[in-house]
Design a protein that fits this description.
Order of helices and strands: EHEEH
Helix content: 10-25%
CATH superfamily: 2,3-Dihydroxybiphenyl 1,2-Dioxygenase, domain 1
CATH topology: 2,3-Dihydroxybiphenyl 1,2-Dioxygenase, domain 1
Shape: globular
Number of strands: 3
Oligomer: single chain
CATH class: Alpha Beta
Structural class: alpha+beta
Largest sheet: 3 strands, mixed
Radius of gyration: 15 Å
Distance between the termini: 35 Å
Strand order of the largest sheet: 1-3-2
């Protein structure tokens, strides 16, 4: 069994770039599918889709339900060496809003 989560975003390229180039996920093909792009690392699959293509009656459609999404949910990626991952993310230039405790 695997687990797939879906994220709906206003910027497909930025989201796929973060998961592939910063966190090391992979995607099939060399070009982003702008309708739906799964990224994978180990048994973790994250499906990334454009929020503007959601159907009008989809429960995540911002026109139907304008509250902020994501409250009460976390994506936790467990890694063997958090210090190494932190160093990699920091070296990528991606902004980190949390200072690692030693």
């Amino acid at each position: 069994m695997t687990l797939r989560m879906e994220l709906f975003t206003s910027d497909m390229n930025k989201s796929v770039d973060f998961y592939t180039n910063v966190l090391g996920f992979t995607m099939e093909g060399k070009k982003i599918n702008t309708s739906y792009q799964p990224v994978k690392k180990g048994d973790v699959i994250i499906g990334i889709g454009p929020i503007h293509k959601l159907s009008k009656d989809h429960h995540f459609n911002p026109d139907l339900n304008p509250t902020h999404k994501g409250y009460g949910a976390e994506i936790v990626l467990e890694v063997k060496d958090i210090k190494e991952v932190y160093k990699h993310v920091k070296s990528s230039g991606y902004p980190i809003h949390w200072k690692r405790r030693t």
